[in-house]
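Practice set, problem 2.
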Amino acid sequence: MKHVPQAASQRAIRLRDLWPLFAAYAVSQLGGWVFRAGAVYDIFDKQGGEGSVLGWTLLCVYIPILVGGKWLAPLSDKYNSIYVMIALDVLCTLILLPVLFGSDMISLGNVLMALLVIVGLSLATPVFTAAQSSLIRKRVAPEQVTTAMSVLSNITWATNVLGTVGGSLLLLLLSFKSIILINLLSFVFSGALLFMFLQRRPLFDTAAPQKTATAAESAPAAEARAKKIKWVLLSSIFFLNLGAGVINLFPAVAARDIYQSHQIGLSYFYLGNGIGGFVGTLLIVRLRKHISEVPLLMTSSLAIGLLLLSMSWFPSAMFSILISSLMLMIGQVFGVIAHTYLLTSHAPEQAGRTSGLFMFATFLGVAVNAGLFSLFFSKVEVSSFSIFMQFCGACSLMAFVILAVHAYRKRGDFNHKSRSHGAGEQQGNKAAH
């Protein structure tokens, strides 16, 4: 490995220098979660609480995210990341304005307009995330990328807790129009923070030193290895989220249709799930110090599959909250490690595209899960939903199978190379004698 001088590593951006970026992300995410939680539950409740309504509403959230992740996220590799994020804040502010004049979710026309707004905001989400990931990959020292991504994930779950709990609770206190105004202000403030970060031009223009290929691994070999890792990870990410994506439906279904606790119960589910996800992000760096990527991904995917199977049992609301929170805690570990592994396995100039592919695989699984729910659950019954949860557990276990096969083949390749190297050394020794 090529040695990087100490002076060069000092030119990389330190994590504390990125606070305006993290703060802008936190503000925009908080406003977005408040709006989406409020909109999804308001539509679900005022349209009769049908499972198909909930499923199609969630599809409007997640299908645009996977479309944006595949085809729009690479834009962050072509343009200045900060400019991209500022432009997105302005665009999202403009997109939200029409729904201010039609915030009553009883009218079908207003529901359709709200869904179009959700689609627009969801299209922008993967581009915003890819721009942040691209900046981190290019400007932060490689050994700090995992920590930086963990910080972003901590912010994601902290804002998820406050936003989703707040979105459902604010519906009890304020009108849906007030929730829209909160989201508008969040985008304005986020753009202002990003503009402030842009003014720190000398800092922004520094580039982190990057690792180069070793003599033992040529550039074509490194590229082939990265491609193999990419498809293994993307396929495992898809199957894991095909099962674990049910967590977007589970709180509303469990609170409203199984335990009949409605908005208060929904807030408890969101609170417990958010805390679980937040705790998971606190474990990531510690676990990564002791366990390498693939074994950690295997262990977490196995645990997630088993917990999803446990979620098919509904003895009490407290049990469902606890098990779903544990599942989200471990899911956060899987998500951050998989995302970081993808980023560090590819060149910095491909960071936006790589991050977009991660989001594409993630939300493709989530969208298929929501689509299946919409097709088969016009009305939710405990027995049929329990079977659906078992199906979700089996899907997530497929991620473990994919990763286990990859690990087995990788170990086989390593043993084959070791034997070949040993045989070569023996022949050389014989020739010398």
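Problem 2, part (b): a different protein.
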Amino acid sequence: MKNLIFIIIFSIYFFNVRFKNLPPGAILATVLLIVPLILKIKNIKLPYSKRANPAFLILILITIISIISFLNSNMDEFFGFQLTTYLWISSIVIPTIIYNLFQKDEDVLKLLIGCGILNSIFIILMFISPGFKEIYNGLLETPTILDGVDQENSINLRNIGLSGFASYSTGVLQMIFSFIFLLHKKLKGDHLFVKDLFLLILFIISGMLAARSSIIGVVFAMFMLFIFFGILPLIKLFFLLSTSALIFLCMIYLLLPENLSNFFITWLSEPFTSGLKTASLQVNKEMFNIDYTMFSLLGEFRWFDDNSRSNYFMHTDVGYLRILLALGYIGLFLFLILNIYLALPIRNEYSVFRFFTMLYLILILFKGSIISDAFQIYTLIFTSIILEIKQINKYHEKKFNDQPC
């Protein structure tokens, strides 16, 4: 029961679930998680890793750039500070809570996998059951539809998942949870059985329902599967995934109204039928046709056109351009250095996970501002660093104890 409660609370955090008349999920969950930490305040331990120190230094520099950019802009928009706060919460506060609440590495990984599974179930159930979707969405704040998000698409396709609105960032998180699942199986030394592959397929289907761009994560998951377990499980996955996809498409035709099922099939097949001429890809490409001399070193500290947050600043949702507009070339450079530093070097299973996660993040920034839309990714990254250090320390401790007297 306790594990289920933690899975629910952490899921509220990771997917920033906004219930009516309550604070954003990330803040609500953080407050709820701090309570059990306070109860054991005398025994609180702060995770320390030299590996994380340069990353924290870069975060400090990004915070300083944010303050300078704000003072230089004469703007009254505070989302940049909110984002900076979220980055610190995701990089330090939540990993520290996890470190203190869970003694075993396996318990941490099972918790994270549980969050991904819970959201997968909600995504699929809400997609095939309009009644369940309507009941659950009635508990949530109505999401704001921003530039670059099609209204019909949002109503017919995207109002699914724990957050009530599955966008590209939801797909990214789902696929990263699939990376964690593969990491967990590898660390346990287990073989991948058919049930494990079906669980991986659950992540893949939920990720693809959230966003077509999740195909990048699917490819990376397959690379991790091959690196960790070889070619045979990969072949089995291809077969099971193809079969599962066909069955799921048949279910869509049977369970959904004709207009919605046709809309989904058209939306899903567009990248294969249109290739590089896909509408969303064309929109993104056009956003890069911009005069780059208009950007400054420190940016204008703006993410939105107005305080209602109904439109992105300069009507662009491309992640790199939004960072440039908000924090300038210096801010973008620092974020790139941070992500590259966290991705390298590759030396063990945890670092393989971080490499594919950060590469995914770097690529998806061409689509949207994933650092603001799914800042919780940094919780997963810094938690993996903590677990890796614990694993290394255990290895050295065992090696020392095994030495003859």
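Answer key, part (b): The chain has one domain: 2-392. Residues 2-392 form one domain.
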